[in-house]
Amino acid sequence: MDTLGKKFGFKGIFWVAILVFFTINLSYNVLVINGDEIMEPVVGKLDNPLAYSITNHWIYEEGEMEDEAWTMVQTMGNQFVVNGQPFYVNGFNTYWLMEFAVDQSTRGKVNEVFQQASSIGLTVCRTWAFNDGQGQALQKSPSVYDEEVFKTVLNRVNTLTNITYKDDPTIFAWELMNEPRCDADPSGNKIQAWIEEMAVYAKSIDPKHLLEIGLEGFYGPSTPNRVRYNPSKYAQLIGTDFIRNHQVLGVDFASAHIYADAWISRTISDSHISFVKSWMLAHIEDAENALNMPVVFGEFGVSAKDRGYNSSFRDSFIGAVYDTLINSAKKGGSGGGSLLWQLFPEGTDSMDDGYAIVLSKSPSTSNIISLQSTRIETFNSLCSWKCHWACKKKHPSETVLFHDEL
Question: CA–CA separation, 39 vs 174, rounded Å?
Fold first, then answer.
């Protein structure tokens, strides 16, 4: 979501994004490179998501999965893997973390949102790691960037672990650009050249972490047979191309966003749910068959400012996203996960762009997210990558969980 509304160069300013993992006794920071702004972090912290009860399926004993040290997330074919096991993402966006963290008066809000996310099993967080304008800014002025600041982010040492970001397994990936667009070149050649240059450059500094682009997912000139899945004819004229862009050397997984209200109509309707399903299935299919990589739906949500908005519709919308991903996981498909836009703690109303989810005020939505976390964690924990869900693993109590039960 373009929260800044600025239009410099491509679509906006470049930004740094970090994806961060929450897992047993570990604190993670995950970096991704993004397109409205250059690098964006996805960050998160869960004290112990595996220690909570997996309702109707399992209860994990604390420390059960600590036998192996956490390693870098990798891709194996069309799936994410960690320590030889599948890793499906259930996460959230909090673009404002850095801004709140540097101010002593608001720093507590960072811990608060992490604690709340942990309580419902979310595992990955995406946030900004850049600064514009004054004082060690990544973007000193529109379209003018400081390369040393870029390198500083990748080479920064985590003050808690003394590990350099580029060596830190807490980092999930770098995102090159949040929602890149270039209306001036509908052929897509300019953005394609930029992706090709920046992917190689980022990998030359940090070859260990995954890299993605940050696309909204619109189909372009390279696949005229797929543009029918775009929300409008305009979407194929903004200079991006889902298939072509993700075939660039150095790009490890695909990204797409889901904003039926912003793209189709600001009046909510059942057609939004239908769009979600067709949009996601098309991208999962293409990630598997054309790209052989996972796809993460890096932003999705419903705005409370939409005409006819109600929380029940938002829950149905989120549920449709989650169900589509679970169905993909059951088949060993390319649906690698999703990141809600966006979570906020209480008392941050001034930052709300309409899409804010305050978990303490949204019990039904929290329950839906928690259920998805339960299902995702079951997938992540029970099967090795090689089995592709064809196995039926036994719980320590010797009960059997069949995939159809999820």
Answer: 7
**What length is written for the chain?**
406
DSSP helix/strand/coil, 74: strand
Q: Which two tokens stand for residue 381?
A: 């924990």
Distance of alpha carbon 257 from alpha carbon 177, whole angstroms: 13
179 is catalytic: yes
- The token pair at 395 is 């719980």
| Whether the Cβ atoms of residue 360 and residue 110 lie closer than 8 Å to each other | no
- The single residue of 179, 212, 216, 377 carrying the catalytic annotation is 179
C-alpha dihedral, 399 to 65 to 207 to 170, nearest 10°? 120
Q: Is this model's pTM higher than 0.85 or not? A: no
Asked if 401 and 382 count as a contact pair (C-beta separation under 8 A), the reply is: yes
**d(C-alpha 126, C-alpha 120), whole Å:** 17
Tokens 């762009």 sit on residue: 353
Cβ 340 vs Cβ 91: under 8 Å: yes
Q: How confident is the model over 229-239, as a mean pLDDT?
A: 97
- Give the whole-angstrom CA distance, residue 206 versus residue 125: 20
- 26: pLDDT strictly greater than 50: no
Q: Kindly report whether the peptide bond that precedes residue 115 is cis, defined as omega within 30 degrees of 0.
A: no
| Catalytic option among 37, 216, 299, 377 | 299
Q: Are strands 79-82 and 85-86 parallel, antiparallel or unpaired?
A: antiparallel
Note the pLDDT of residue 83.
85
Tens of pLDDT, residues 277-290: 999 999 999 999 99
| Residue of 114, 125, 124, 121 lying closest to 49 (CA atoms) | 121
Residue among 317, 260, 258, 320 nearest 283 (CA): 258
Report residue 42: phi and psi, to 5°: -115, 115
Would residue 299 show up in a list of annotated catalytic residues for this protein? yes
Rg (CA), the chain: 20
Answer with the residue of higher pLDDT: 17 or 373. Answer: 373
* 33-74 confidence digits (pLDDT tens): 333 333 343 333 333 332 322 222 222 233 333 445 678 999
- Calculate the alpha carbon distances from 98 to 109, 129, 131, 144 in Å: 11, 7, 9, 22
